[in-house]
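Entry 14. Ran structure prediction on the chain below.
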Amino acid sequence: MRILVIGAGGHGQVVADILLRMTDAGEKVIVVGYLDDDPALIGEQFLGLPVLGRLDQCVSESHDAVVVAVGRNQTRRQVVEELTRRGERFAAARHPRAVIAPDAVIGPGAMICAGVVVNPGAVIGAHTILNTGCTVDHHSRIGDYAHIGPGVHLGGDVRVGPGTLVGIGSSVLPQRQVGDWSVIGAGSLVTRDIPSNVTAVGRPARIR
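Output, structure tokens:
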């Protein structure tokens, strides 16, 4: 499968590295290069891969699928929606050193970094980021476009809504729910349900 990485910034380079490690592990993945709308990046190379042009050049580059490697959740959704209208196919990037239960469901376009653990019964939404070393315990459900930050630990049967960011090093107790498009600050401990469209920080996490 020939894959284009959409976005050549730091997050895009992490996605590209995951895809390259997938190739090293024997998966049939060829990373074509990056597309990025920042004119300063066009023609550059990162991890040995070229920045081929702007996003609107997607149709002119031979590929089978794309990964939208944009860290900001809202922007990632906007890019995905535009590419969906163009008929693009989305691939998931799964690092070979992630541990994913056989029955876990991984949505299209998801990014799963090194050291991630996804336990049985978990459902990971489309275009969601599971960042380095986070853990998603049994039967938890993560909505589309969410970002589970590095070192986050989600207990069993947790719900995280679409577009929500759970910041670096946070923990969510079992059976708790975090609503849609909310932010959990770095290092927080979620001990009770958090509604949608709020920011919560602290140990225990409280709405700001």
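DSSP finds two helices and 24 strands in the chain. Will compare against last week's run tomorrow.
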